[in-house]
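User: Please predict structures.

Assistant: First:
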Amino acid sequence: MLEIIDVYKTFNPGTVNEKKALNGVNLKLNDGDFCTVIGGNGAGKSTTLNAIAGVWPVDSGAILIDGEDISALPEHKRAPYLGRVFQDPMTGTVADMEIIENLAIAARRGQKRGLSWGVKKSEREEYRELLKQFELGLEDRMSSKVGLLSGGQRQAITLLMATIKRPKLLLLDEHTAALDPKTAAKVLELSDKIIEENNLTALMVTHNMKDAITHGNRLIMMSDGKIVLDISGEEKKKLTVEILLQKFEKASGSTIDNDRMLLGD
């Protein structure tokens, strides 16, 4: 479903601020894979997601989704293939529009829009059922402005908006980092549920080693702009933070000095 082939990206080349962000990234995700991505600051995690989303062009290499080379497509033309949830709960929704209006916009992504725009009764019932699964009381607040919601509620809405059209690939970019631990756990639980029920292919960037181990069927670890570990199947099920640290040190030749990763906060 996703294939990244020898991708390189350098920011500010030829200047004192030159930064090699991606240094020959190769990754292949099969249909239905839920892959977590971990690594220290500057490892290339979010840069990889931005490369897939087309936020900027890569220097070299190719990115394929479902066998189609999207490397040359601008960001807006990749949108039909992708669903994305960002770290900031304020991103991905329209604050001064109602919950139901935000969901309707997401459901109409890629469709031609005429002058008669409104939410049908059947859609309202569908959204109500979808919101009910969150157990956050949002199904009774569909006319509330999204800007009035808590961070966790807003992130739940964004997650639903990103998956309502069943994208070929779901990108989760540290989507629980700005939430308190209890809310973060709830949003991760919802992510697992939506990905499993819709058989989505997903890539989840996280700083939290425990979350990276607990969620998904595959884990990759990045360092210095490339993938240094790729763990799946039974090996991933047996992982602990201690074992992962040992594997990382052996693969990269360095130790992790990132407190957020080690403490799992």
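Second:
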Amino acid sequence: MEPVYKNPKTLIDTPTHYCPGCGHGIIHRLIAEIIDDLDIRGKTIGLAPVGCAVLAYNYLDIDMCEAAHGRPPAVATGIKRVHPDKIVFSYQGDGDLAAIGMAEIIHTASRSENITVIFVNNAVYGMTNGQMAPTTLLNQRTLTTPQGRNEKYDGYPIRICELLATIDGSRFLARTSITSPKNIIKTKQLLEKGFKSQIEEKGFSLIEILSPCPVYWRMNPNDAMKFIDDNMTTTFPLGIFKDWESQN
């Protein structure tokens, strides 16, 4: 019989450190599948940040590099310029990319560096016990907004795709989620296009993935997925925000 399931070669068979219901494991597998499908394992370099994804290199059998908090796009830029034949991507959370790393992501997009950025948005600081993030929704309760995020005191959620879409150097920007098999398939397609954009030397691409954090949302995994569909997508609508193909 022909197998219907197999582990990607790029995905390391090791116990996970992620919390139950976390979306990082799904995303890791999708990245591994794409690297296998494109046959680029020997030439791919990933950047791990500070945050929940700090140990991404434990799961992907490729060359990986650790970057200081918020600095993966800057380190990725240096690696790509020295090794333009390599496929370079950063894997970042919302605290890493949208807070301390905001300057790096904006200027990397402005220069249209030919890298791929994978942005995992769970609207909370997961590694440090659930404080408010730049992407926390209005009225969402976190460790530092126990009454809910208030725009008067805490500001508004930052929409990264919409922000970067105003920058001329951005070539491919998309937001997706992993809340259903249909959305997971779509996420894989968008991630693959992000990698292909780099292979075809089109310039800067970013794929934002809405992902659950059940532990610090104080929800069970099923309710966390429903929260993304019912609440997060209202603030962060899914779709493609910039596409080099449609601009040609």
